[in-house]
């Protein structure tokens, strides 16, 4: 079930007038099912034992394979044999390395000409989390988004008063491309300088955060616009996306309270966007600022922006090249009529989309451990669950039976929240302002080291562990952050143990 709204209802929700009893009721459920969903998704008050099926984070699709570096790369446990084959084909394309045109491997050419990565897995290594550049290494799993304030020539998708995305830098487009095909110069490179930011906790211990400053060097095509806005982004984990796509929009909107009418200091707001396939207004739920409505749209945008590959949704065979980069636009592309109108035609985009929709979520560990249960209570008592909403039940009308009516535990409300000055990128995206970020799901966060080989968190990897990530929270999360900072070390350790169990 895709949830679409009229402009009048969007305005009502944006203004907070639909709060509480006026929220929309799910149309996919019978009254009996609705009562059941309300019951099973209600916040728990019993922290002495695990909740029913709490270990099955993705319902029947939860994977129970051995915990290894491949923990995020398994297909959902409830796939059919035929779907497993489709998943494996999508996996092969997700891992595919694209090459520049012209090439003897004609089904693989079309890279760039400017690009950030040569394949999907280059950023989402092991389907896990990206990280900032290492010493002497490149930043292939992290890139720098660019935009300028919109002017008269605003070509963004718009529908019913909702405008999607952002306006790229006139010369460098929507993100800094740090690689290029032979014969062309890369646009430049991202520079990160860190400054120490010590934080004293309630027990007197000191945690030193690292505060990043971003700039660019070695610009090959002139200066950036004077009013350019930059935002660093690391690649997000791929697990559970298909289930997130099938959370009923009504359930996400039920947590929205843009004007904080209940006075709890939490003002979650939806980021409405325009679906490039249907050209209709839809709820954004993917990306660091919830700017994408579907996995297919997100995949197409990544093909175009990160790899420079055109798809049926984004007909950009030169990727992010702009009109002020004529040498880039003059280079050959990989579009070939016999293979399809785009470099990654429907079969390719469809298979990669299916792969992303059917990656499983690992089973939780240690759900009954006393420290984990104490940490879960501290998580709730600190207010973390106000935004990191533990559980949802997916739509009865999901297109694939594997996603239908599953109790899932993503620990996110998928709404935008003001996270304060410390995390602000001061760069709007759609209806998200420069202080707002989508609440990231927490499922799988405890396996970051196992899968990705590091523990760097947040949108730019500035936090080197879970404690630092919590301490960076501000704005609407300031109260939860301050409560965490004031906890005794033993209780903080329990809360971290709970997060590591996810």
Explain how this protein is built.
A two-stranded antiparallel ribbon has the order 1-5. It has one domain. By secondary structure, it is α+β, with helices and mostly antiparallel strands. Helix 7 crosses helix 9. The protein contains 14 helices and 14 strands.
Overall pLDDT confidence: 93
Please estimate the helix content. 10-25%
State the distance separating the first and last CA atoms.
Answer: 28 Å
| Strand coverage percent | 5-15%
Number of DSSP E strands:
14
- What is the CA-based Rg, rounded? 22 Å
- Which consecutive residue ranges, at least 5 long each, have pLDDT under 50? 1-21
Q: What would you call the structural class? A: alpha+beta
SSE succession: HHHEHEEEEEEEHHEEHHHHEEEEHHHH
Gross morphology is globular
Major sheet characteristics: 2 strands, antiparallel
Order of adjacent strands in the largest pleated sheet: 1-5
Question: What's the number of helices?
Answer: 14
Sum this structure up briefly.
By secondary structure, this protein is an alpha+beta fold. The protein has helices at residues 7-14, 31-41, 81-94, 120-123, 241-245, 249-253, 295-307, 326-329, 346-358, 370-381, 448-452, 466-471, 478-486, 489-501, and strands at residues 114-115, 142-147, 158-159, 162-163, 179-180, 189-200, 206-217, 229-234, 271-275, 280-284, 392-393, 407-408, 416-418, 436-438. The strands form 7 sheets. Strands 1-5 form a two-stranded antiparallel sheet. Strands 2-8 form a two-stranded antiparallel ribbon.
